Amino acid sequence: MSYLTIGCRSGLLVRAVAMLTRMSSPRTPLTRLLTVLLAGLLAGLVLAVAALPGNLLAGLATRAVLGAFDDLPAALRTPATPQRSYLYANDGRTLLTTFYDVNRTDVPLAEIAPTLRQAIVAAEDRRFYSHGGADLRGMARALVANVTGGGTAQGGSTLTMQYVRNVLKSDPSRTAEEREAATEQTVGRKLQEIRYATELEKTLSKDEILNRYLNIAYFGSGAYGVAAASQRYFGKAPADLTLAESALLAGLVQSPDEYSPIDGDRDAALKRRGYVLDSMVATGAITAAQADAARAEKLILHPTAQPNGCTATVTADAGFFCDYLRRWWLEQPAFGATAQEREQALRRGGYRVVTSLDPDVQATAAAEARKVYPADDARALPIAAVEPGTGRVLALAVNREYGVGDGQTVNPLVSGGGSITGYQAGSTFKLFTMLAALENGRTLSTGFDSPSRLTTRFPAEGEASCGGRWCPANANPARMDGYRMMWDGFGRSVNTYFVWLEEQVGPAKVVEMAQRLGITFRARTDADLAAHDADNWGAFTLGVSATTPLDLANAYATVAAEGTYCAPTPVVSVTGPDGSTVPVGQPACRQVLSADVARAATDAARCPVGQQSAYGQCNGSTAGGVDGIVGRPVAGKTGSSEQNATETFVGFTPQVAVAGIAANPDDPSDAVGAAVQGEVITAVARTIRTAVDGLPVRDFTAPSRELAGNPQRPAPRPTPRAPEREDQNLPLDLLRWLQNRRG
């Protein structure tokens, strides 16, 4: 008999098998008898073919398919099946969330309970370890069982054939039409499946095929693979499954939607579990007594819904951080050439991402933000924490809830992006003026007799205009006016001192310094000024440009790291599904300031928080309580925008920088008011305290004497003594009138 003849008969056989196995309508006794006779005939043919030598059978299958077969599809050699990506906190254990289109994760065979392995083989392919990929005897047995209608329905496909089908129908590299064709009820497709299964068995070991099958099979209720299934139904790892649980899961793969005890028929699932247990007894995997004991167990489920995306984070209040990570991910070429490919990689690539988020710092920042404003308040207090020297983002928290429901938002309130351009941060921008001045030859001792109001060279109109020139004023003349150096000018936040200093250096250099430290101008008007008219941006030093807590914290972290700027990053490591490390997220740092300039600015920044500079020049503060809260060397700066529309505080130690800005993200005209400044300072200071808890106490390095300059203040001007005047003996009320007139 020629191969072609056998192939044609095999094709007729497969057609008949497909036809008979689809027979499910009620049959008359005569019809049933004829069906049984035909089934017996077909079974005999199958068994006759099955008796052929293995190599002859392989050749038969090969030649029965029209067209030539080259090597196995790449997806069968190296599966490209979609897998969940996991996001963890920086401890590598605390789960934040997962991303997936298909809920599945690969696990090695050693991490799957032996009872589940045995149950799958017993239920789906008892001759798995003896056939060569296609089991024609098993097909005949299934055919007879199905057409006679006795017992539980059986399938004729081996585990290897099922694996081939599962891979081809889910391979993301194939077209939708190709994936659909993988499950067609046609002779050609079935013979192709047999061919691939036979070839695959020559390439992979039985255990490897079983492992791959267990990782791709659908178990119902949205769970693909045993890892997802054991978590979905029992809330445990597949290694911890009991015999009864293993039998239940193994029984689901034949009809996942029908048998699922969560979404389908619970009684049908238990009946199918009993069938699997009986099959395990038949294969010798377990004893009858073990089967009876497992059958008697009550079905106790612990359904676990796997989180998916940033709106479903497991770790409370991590949604805004998750959103920042996702935006960062979509910019990384390592995950694809386009944003769409990178999104697909996150949702289907099976990555393990250890993020930079510190759960304790995140929890503290979120709790402190909610002490200031409740979650449903129109106003917000976004807080960001960054690690100096690495750029790793330790926390992104806000009092709002991340989500798409009522009272929730998915706007990146802490990190910026989309419609969020940021918030004015007030006098925190004086740091950039001080750095630019120090870098351009000034010293910390640079002095100026600061007036209550300073007329500048910058044109202006309105209330802030003096003869057509911008003339800013000090917020509190009684404690700000007078001779100031950088130390107490920064400590007391003297507007006229820093506007004067900015004029001396040139606003363009101050703007460039801010950009060098990572300040991004997201608002179009700010970007235009920075690009085209920076040297006339006199108000820049007073923090009129919009920024975000993340940008601000990272800029101050650059000073804390003695001039080393590190691009902010939300990850510690990213591992691919094969265990390889993806080269992304490592600290990307460069020196943008001399260490001495950064140390000098830090020395002045000790003043606002109630500490003392290395040269003993601090004599006033705006956030003096920070010293007592943090309890170790700390520096920082407050900031209030015009009319107290926003209130800001940034604090830092050598190990962490934290920034918080109170604002109404949706209505800049809704001023938060000066009264909230103390609460913002406290929230940031407590977040710093949590971040450094348990870390060694580190002090700041003092700047050089060269940059300190000569911190000698001029002798205070004597209060002029009133000369002897004729009016000394005038009536008191008249004397006061004259004094007021002279004043």
UniProtKB/TrEMBL annotation:
Catalytic activity of the protein: Preferential cleavage: (Ac)2-L-Lys-D-Ala-|-D-Ala. Also transpeptidation of peptidyl-alanyl moieties that are N-acyl substituents of D-alanine; [GlcNAc-(1->4)-Mur2Ac(oyl-L-Ala-gamma-D-Glu-L-Lys-D-Ala-D-Ala)](n)-di-trans,octa-cis-undecaprenyl diphosphate + beta-D-GlcNAc-(1->4)-Mur2Ac(oyl-L-Ala-gamma-D-Glu-L-Lys-D-Ala-D-Ala)-di-trans,octa-cis-undecaprenyl diphosphate = [GlcNAc-(1->4)-Mur2Ac(oyl-L-Ala-gamma-D-Glu-L-Lys-D-Ala-D-Ala)](n+1)-di-trans,octa-cis-undecaprenyl diphosphate + di-trans,octa-cis-undecaprenyl diphosphate + H(+)
Among Pfam families, the record links this protein to:
Transgly, Transpeptidase
Instruction: Indicate yes or no for the key word Cytoplasm.
Output: no
Q: Does Hydrolase count among this protein's keywords?
A: yes
- Residue span(s) of domain Glycosyl transferase family: 95-280
- Print the keywords alphabetically: Carboxypeptidase, Glycosyltransferase, Hydrolase, Multifunctional enzyme, Protease, Transferase
Q: Which residues form the Penicillin-binding protein transpeptidase domain?
A: 384-679
- Could you name the domain of life of the organism this protein comes from? Bacteria
Q: Looking at the record, which segments are called Disordered?
A: 700-743
Q: What is this protein called?
A: Penicillin-binding protein
Q: Which organism is it from?
A: Micromonospora humida
Recite the lineage of the species: Bacteria, Bacillati, Actinomycetota, Actinomycetes, Micromonosporales
